[in-house]
Amino acid sequence: MQAKVNGTKIYYTEGGNPAATSVVFIHGFPFSSAIWKDQLKMLDRDFHHVAYDFRGLGSSDLGDGQYTLEGHVDDLIAMLDYLEIDQAIVVGLSMGGYIALRALERNPERFLGVVLCDTQSKADDNAAKIKRAVGAKAVKQDGAAAFAAGFVGAVFTKASIQNDVAAVGLIKDLISANNPLAIAGNLIAMAGRTDTTESLRNISIPTLILVGEEDALTTPDTARVMHEQIKGSELHVVPKAAHMSNLENPEFFNARLLEFLKKV
Ligand code: MLT
User: Fold this and answer.
1) Mean pLDDT in the chain?
2) Mind listing the domains of the chain with CATH numbers?
3) Ligand 1 atom nearest to CA at 151
4) DSSP string, 47-69
5) What is the pTM of this model?
6) Which of 217, 243, 247 to probe ligand 1 with, by most ligand atoms within 8 A of CB?
C-alpha cells in the first residue's frame, strides 16, 4: 500500500487486528520494511501492525535524494496521521531507532511504548561523519551492490557470514535494490542527526532495549548506557546475533518483543 505524505509516496504494509493497539516498525539503514516479516506475522492475532519503507528506501519514492532525520520524523508522524493512529508503540532498529528517539523528543504524546533495537542515542563524532562522507561518495561511484557486499560483513556475526544464512542474502538483496542516491542521502541524514542522549531521562513510557551480543556498530555497552538513563527500561542482550538481531536470532528477539508488547 502507498500513502502520500509530505509530498512523497511512502510504501507500507498494514495488518493484524485493526481494533487492537498499533505497533509501528521502522527498519534500519539501508534496508526496507521486508526485514520485519517474522515479527509482523507473530503480531497478526493480538495487535494492529504497520511497517513502512522510509523515504528513499525499499518501495518508497526517492524524492529529491536529500534527507534529514527531522524529515524522517515528519514522515513518521504524517504516517500516524494518515493511518488515523493517535498513539502507537514504535519499534525501531538502528537508524529506525534514531528516528524513534527523535520522534519521542518531538511528539511524546503519540507513543505508548518504544522498542529500541541495536541503536543508540549518540550523534556521529567526527570520525563517523567522515566515514559517512566516504560511504556516500563510494556508493554513488560503485553502486548499491558493491555497498551491500561491504556492509554485510559489519552487521552479521562471523558464523552467519561463513554459513551464508538466508538473512545475509536478504540484506544483500534489499540493499542492492536501493537507489545509490537514496543510500548516499540517508548516510548524510545520519551524519547530520542530533544527539538524543540528554532526553533519555525524560522518556516515561515503557521501553524495551534489544541488542545483539556481537553488535559492533551499536554495542551492548551503548545499549547499557541507554538502559541506565531510561527509567524502568528493560534490556536484553540477544545471543548469537550482531547488528541484525531480529533476523539472526528471531526466536529470542520475538519472545522478548511479544512479552513486552503484551505488558504495555
Ligand atoms: C543501520 O543499521 O541503520 C545503520 O547501520 C546505522 C548507522 O550506520 O549508524
Assistant:
1) 98
2) 2-124+193-263 (3.40.50.1820)
3) 5
4) -EEEEE--TTSTTS--TTS---H
5) 0.98
6) 217
